[in-house]
Design goal:
This protein is mainly beta. Helices cover 10% and strands 34% of the residues.
């Protein structure tokens, strides 16, 4: 019964919103154990139709550059984390040239020099070089704690006795 009430409420709401043409809705209660309730009629209130025009979206047309050119570069050198990487790239028309480098987890620097053009496609040359080993000392922060009462430590007295001889 509750499901039917929800469906009816949704239909009335849709009719009020103008999604369904406004027309009288009739709902008859079902028969329970031989008893039938009187039919209930719901008439939807007339819906005023509002004219609404959606805003017209302006389409931005990008200019076509027949000979694109750019230079791009970045460099990261973080002494705290040891992160070290860089890249530079240039483009002149359909020819792209660049290089990037980074420090691999094994402590080597990987450098990739690459070119790309319509005739040769993408070509890359990869080099690896060993870096000087830097010792990184991990310093533990001392843990500070507060004792409830100061504790005094005293060394226990030493007791020495000569061996006993019996005659």
């Amino acid at each position: 019964m509750a499901f039917r009430l929800v469906v009816l409420t949704c239909l009335v709401a849709a009719a009020s919103a103008g999604l369904i043409p406004a027309a009288p809705l009739a709902y008859a209660a079902p028969t329970y154990h031989g008893y039938q309730a009187a039919p209930v009629a719901y008439a939807a209130a007339p819906v005023a139709k509002l004219a609404y025009a959606a805003p017209v979206a302006k389409v931005a047309v990008e200019e076509y550059d027949a000979h694109p050119q750019y230079n791009f570069a970045y460099d990261v050198q973080d002494g705290l984390t040891g992160d070290s990487k860089s890249q530079h790239e240039t483009r002149d028309g359909d020819v792209v040239q660049g290089s990037y480098s980074l420090v691999d987890p094994d402590g080597t620097r990987r450098t990739v020099d690459y070119t790309a053009d319509p005739h040769n496609g993408f070509n890359a040359v990869v080099r690896k070089e060993a870096l000087a080993v830097k010792a990184v000392a991990k310093v533990a922060t001392p843990v500070a704690y507060h004792a409830a009462a100061p504790v005094a430590y005293h060394a226990a007295p030493l007791a020495y006795s000569a061996p006993l001889y019996h005659h």
